[in-house]
């Protein structure tokens, strides 16, 4: 069997997916229309023109604007269900889904509206497609620590539905240290900590995420490659890295997929996984991320099997649930 044949059918897990980043233009148009909200695109062609990014901030500005049309519980359900339907097509059997409550509560949408819509889709996906999922509540790092504390408070009635807390949005100038106290408090509440680090920011931010936020997994982490000592530590401590190849090229953190460091990271012994990040914006869901890497980096069947294995091993499933997939 070739690596390409293998990846198309094998059961796999996705560990880095922003649900707001799976918002396809067609669904955005539909929800905008029923909620009577203006969006700056008349056609799919306009959308494609707008989705040309030169860095993370460029993308974030458009991503937050897109999320503005999400108002009602049904909108969050539709958004999440569309992602699960894609998972079912690709045999993604486990997904760890990030959501950004502040993107919505800042606009006056209740925390409960967001999570109830997502939760209803999760339950249906489990029942209909046999897809398991976990939720990662991400704090927006361009906002204040106080704001993150407020979000933590809002989440507490729904603690049983949320596995982990994350840190996303504009990385440069917003180091993990800014959120040390809210992560401490989140861990006390029982949340598992993760954080985006080393996507655009320096290796120093990865050290901070490890030492100050006590993270259990790093989102992206590519920039660890500038620091051999850090690489050694990540290997030794078996820290999972959720790498997002098509995101990295779309946001110009990597100039071309042929130069993506995924294979190098694997060769160094880093615990890398493949993920889609914001697939509606970056041109591919999970399987396409694998396919692009297999083709560009000439990954072997063995290497792809290892990446898929990592996707379950470094998930937050219980050891017992992992056994079902490994
Ligand atoms: N929010 C959504 N996608 C993101 C990314 N790739 N980096 C930081 N924040 C994000
Ligand atoms: Zn991300």
UniProtKB/TrEMBL annotation:
Cofactor: bound how, per the entry note? Binds 1 zinc ion per subunit.
Q: Which organism is it from?
A: Kaistella antarctica
One GO molecular-function entry: adenine deaminase activity
Q: What are the EC numbers?
A: 3.5.4.2
**Catalysed reaction(s)?**
adenine + H2O + H(+) = hypoxanthine + NH4(+)
Q: Which function does this protein serve?
A: Catalyzes the hydrolytic deamination of adenine to hypoxanthine. Plays an important role in the purine salvage pathway and in nitrogen catabolism.
Output the Gene Ontology cellular-component terms. cytosol
Q: Does the keyword Metal-binding apply?
A: yes
Q: Which InterPro entries match?
A: A_deaminase_dom (IPR001365), ADE (IPR028892), Ado/ade_deaminase (IPR006330), Metal_Hydrolase (IPR032466)
Question: Which residues bear the site annotation Important for catalytic activity?
Answer: 220
Q: Which residues bind Zn(2+)?
A: 16, 18, 196, 277
Pfam families per the UniProt record, alphabetical: A_deaminase
| Family affiliation | Belongs to the metallo-dependent hydrolases superfamily. Adenosine and AMP deaminases family. Adenine deaminase type 2 subfamily.
The protein's name in its UniProt record: Adenine deaminase
Q: Domain (Adenosine deaminase): give its ranges.
A: 11-326
Q: Which cofactor does it need?
A: Zn(2+)
Q: Which SUPFAM superfamilies match?
A: Metallo-dependent hydrolases (SSF51556)
Per the Swiss-Prot or TrEMBL record, the active site comprises: 199 (proton donor)
Q: Which residues bind substrate?
A: 278
Q: Which UniProt keywords apply?
A: Hydrolase, Metal-binding, Nucleotide metabolism, Zinc
User: HAMAP family of this UniProt entry?
Assistant: Adenine_deaminase (MF_01962)
- UniProt GO BP: adenine catabolic process; hypoxanthine salvage; nucleotide metabolic process
């Amino acid at each position: 069997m070739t690596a390409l044949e293998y990846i198309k059918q094998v059961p796999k897990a996705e560990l880095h997916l922003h649900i707001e980043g799976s918002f396809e233009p067609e669904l955005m148009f539909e929800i905008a229309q029923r909620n009577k909200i203006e969006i700056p695109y008349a056609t799919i062609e306009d959308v494609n023109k707008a989705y040309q990014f030169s860095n993370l901030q460029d993308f974030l500005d458009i991503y937050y604007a897109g999320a503005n049309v999400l108002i009602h519980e049904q909108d969050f359900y539709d958004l999440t269900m569309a992602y699960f339907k894609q998972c079912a097509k690709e045999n993604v059997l486990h997904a760890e889904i990030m959501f950004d409550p502040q993107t919505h509560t800042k606009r006056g949408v209740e925390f409960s509206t967001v999570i109830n819509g997502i939760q209803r889709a999760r339950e249906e996906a489990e029942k209909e497609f046999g897809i398991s999922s976990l939720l990662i509540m991400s704090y927006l790092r361009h906002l204040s620590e106080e704001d993150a504390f407020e979000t933590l408070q809002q989440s507490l009635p729904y603690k049983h539905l949320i596995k982990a807390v994350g840190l996303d949005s504009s990385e440069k100038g917003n180091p993990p240290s800014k959120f040390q106290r809210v992560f401490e408090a989140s861990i006390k509440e029982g949340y598992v900590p993760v954080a985006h680090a080393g996507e655009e920011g320096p290796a120093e931010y990865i050290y901070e995420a490890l030492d100050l936020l006590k993270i259990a997994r790093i989102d992206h982490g590519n920039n660890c490659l500038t620091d051999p000592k850090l690489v050694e530590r990540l290997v030794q401590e078996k820290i999972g890295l959720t790498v997002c190849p098509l995101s990295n090229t779309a946001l110009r953190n990597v100039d071309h997929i042929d130069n993506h460091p995924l294979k190098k990271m694997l060769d160094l012994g880093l615990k890398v996984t493949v993920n889609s990040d914001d697939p509606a914006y970056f041109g591919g869901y999970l399987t396409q991320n694998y396919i692009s890497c297999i083709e560009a980096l000439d990954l072997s069947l063995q290497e792809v099997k290892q990446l898929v294995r990592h996707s379950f091993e470094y998930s937050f499933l219980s050891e017992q649930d992992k056994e079902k997939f490994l």
